[in-house]
Each structure stands twice: as C-alpha cells, then as structure tokens.
Design brief:
It contains 5 helices and 3 strands. The protein is elongated, with a radius of gyration of 21 Å. With 149 residues, it is mainly α. The longest helix has 42 residues. It has a 3-stranded antiparallel β-sheet, with no helix packed on it. It starts with a strand and ends with a helix.
C-alpha cells in the first residue's frame, strides 16, 4: 500500500485499484460531529448483526432437521433420501453462518471469546437458537453503546 498526501487528501493505492481518494480528516471530523458517520456505522452494525441472527436461526433449523429427522429416518427405516437432501442444505447454511460470523468478528462487533462461543454453537443442535437470542440482546444494546460514545 502506498500513501500519498496531496493538498490535504489522502490517496490509497492498491495493486488492483488505480487509486481511491479519501476525505480529508477535517471532513471526516465534521461528519462525525454531525452524527452522519455514527449513524451509518450504527446502521451497518445492526444490518450485520441482523444477518448473523438470521444465519444462526437458519443454521440451527437445518441442523435440527438433519439430526432429529433425516438421520433417524436413514438409520431406523433405511430411507437415505432425507440425509441426501438435508446434508447439502445444512452445509450451505453452515457456510453462510460461518461467513457472517467472520464478518461480524472482523468488524469488531464481538470479542474472541464470544466469537468462539458463537462458532461452537453451530456444532450443537438447538444451540443456534440460544445464539440468536444472544445476538438479539447485542442488537438491542447497540443504541445504548452508541449514545455512550
């Protein structure tokens, strides 16, 4: 990454991007004072956490269906079609949950311990529902945290 200073603007150059102009620090400060930047960050945080909550519910539902319905049907009654159908669906749901969890962790919304617990909840049937409740409490706590800043 190369940084160039020219007349108060900072320009960031990547090998795959010709260049991107960022606002000068004074413009960012004015937006932050006016609350525009904090409102946008707040909306992004809520959007990301809502997507994580949805992914947690979908992942928990597909895992519960796989473990409680499809696997018993396969082993008790010899009907493997349920596992063949639910296995890939749960796999995609698991990948979606893992991806959104990594995005939330990368955005700094969770600490390492919380991220590890949320990741572990993906492996335990019905734990994803408790994780979604934990995520909902975090969403509800965001307005209090942003007003304290």
């Amino acid at each position: 990454m190369l940084w160039q200073e020219s007349s108060g603007y900072r320009q960031e150059r990547h090998s795959w991007i010709a260049g991107r102009i960022r606002y000068p620090a004074s413009a960012r400060l004015l937006r932050a004072i006016s609350g525009q930047a904090m409102d946008n960050e707040f909306k992004l945080d809520i959007s990301l956490l809502s997507r994580l909550k949805l992914a947690s519910i979908i992942e928990a539902s597909t895992l519960a269906l796989l473990v409680c319905v499809a696997v018993p049907l396969r082993h008790l009654w010899g009907w493997p079609t349920g596992v063949r159908a639910m296995g890939p669906v749960h796999g995609l749901a698991f990948l979606f949950y893992g991806w959104t969890l990594l995005q939330a962790a990368g955005a700094g919304l969770w600490q390492r311990r919380q991220t590890a617990l949320l990741a572990a909840s993906a492996f335990v049937p019905f734990a994803g529902f408790f994780a979604s409740r934990h995520i909902q409490r975090r969403i509800e706590a965001l307005p209090r945290e942003s007003s304290a800043r």
